[in-house]
Amino acid sequence: MNGIQILLIAAVVVIMFFYIVRLRSAIFDLIILTIFSGMAIFFILFPEYTNDIARKMGVGRGADLLFYICIFFFIFIILKMFARIRRLESTLTELVRQQAIKEAQSQSAEYKEEGK
Amino acid sequence: MGSTFILFMSNLINTKSVFIVVPAYNESRTLQLVIQQLLAHGYTPVVVDDGSAKNLKSFVPTASAFFIRHKVNLGQGAALQTGISFALEKNAAYIVTFDADGQHDATNINELLQILIETKADIVLGSRFMTGSVHNMPGKRKRLLKLARYINYFFSGLLLTDAHNGLRVMTIAAAKKIQLRENRMAHATEILSQIKKNKLKYIEAPANVLYTDYSRQKGQTIWSSFRIFFDILLNKVFK
């Protein structure tokens, strides 16, 4: 085991630990997380296997395959983020709008009462 | 005699029941004058302060005009929708959208209202490019709007002579159907999409646009048109 492997495995373990402790503890998430972390540690320890998979798919190196997958993964994440931001925005808009209208209503009611 | 003549001329509209939605964001320089002009015509202005840095309430005579303030800045589309929702709650008869930067002509409102009633349309859209309207637009902006026209057509299916005009007059039925969800400037295209979707009867009418150094500064730049385009795209992708 060389330096980079220790570093990467430590990172995976820390991320996994952080996720379990801080964020979610639903059993489904835990299973998915363990599988992914297990796979990550496995490929860190035996990187030559990624080359085998890559060659089967017609890509030269395992690192290249990972790079291509990452690109699409990040595009997917970005789109999800956009969708989430838009949902958040519409919730915020609705809240601000209701509050603004309510305030304006009460003010105009006050004005009417003063008029009497 | 004089008043009956005016009533006849204005097709028996009670101008008080015509609500003018004026979205304003830091428009302290022009807002006061715009509101005064609207009040002089007897309309009911609904100013929507879209979270301006300095509260615009002091520029609005709250005895004769409504004032709504967003706590945070959401964008012109959101401000318009707030004003429209409010006007509907206040039982307006007609709803007009009007820019706060002083580029529109308050005398055009009555003309557009007449057209709305005569043609029994649901919504009348102001156009600075139709004959009968006056505008002093710089050439660069003119070309940009020409392009925007076709982009709007591509996304909404309506080919108008003027793509981004803030002056619109609509009936209550139309205002109830139009639900703006685009907070920023893409609402102009969204309105067209909703006109098409709800099969509203629309018509364009000439409306003057006066460009001042101030409105040029506040108005849209080439860069913001990219932003609008991106928002429209997102709207189509995510609905």
What does it look like?
The complex is a heterodimer of chains A (116) and B (239). By secondary structure, chain A is an all-alpha fold. Chain A contains four helices and no strands. In chain A, helix 1 (3-23) packs antiparallel against helix 2 and helix 3 (48-56) crosses helix 4 (62-115). Chain A is elongated and about 75 Å long. With 239 residues, chain B is α/β, with parallel strands linked by helices. Chain B has a single domain (2-238), classed as Spore Coat Polysaccharide Biosynthesis Protein SpsA, Chain A (Alpha-Beta Complex). Helix content of chain B is 43%, strand content 15%. Chain B has nine helices and seven strands, in the order αβαββαβαβαβααβαα. Chain B has helices at 2-9, 31-40, 76-89, 107-119, 139-156, 172-177, 187-197, 213-218, 222-238; strands spanning 18-24, 44-49, 66-69, 94-97, 123-127, 168-171, 202-206. In chain B, helix 5 (139-156) runs parallel beside helix 9 (222-238). The model of chain B has no long low-confidence stretch (mean pLDDT 87).
Q: How is the secondary structure organized here?
A:
The complex is a heterodimer of chains A (116) and B (239).
Chain A (H helix, E strand, L loop, with lengths): L2 H21 L3 H19 L2 H9 L5 H54 L1
Helix pairs in contact in A: 1-2, 3-4
Chain B lengths: L1 H8 L8 E7 L6 H10 L3 E6 L16 E4 L6 H14 L4 E4 L9 H13 L3 E5 L11 H18 L11 E4 H6 L9 H11 L4 E5 L6 H6 L3 H17 L1
Parallel strand pairs in B: 1-2, 1-4, 2-3, 5-7
Antiparallel strand pairs in B: 4-6, 5-6
Give structural attributes.
heterodimer; A: 116 residues; mainly alpha; 2 domains; 4 helices; B: 239 residues; alpha/beta; Spore Coat Polysaccharide Biosynthesis Protein SpsA, Chain A; seven-stranded mixed beta sheet
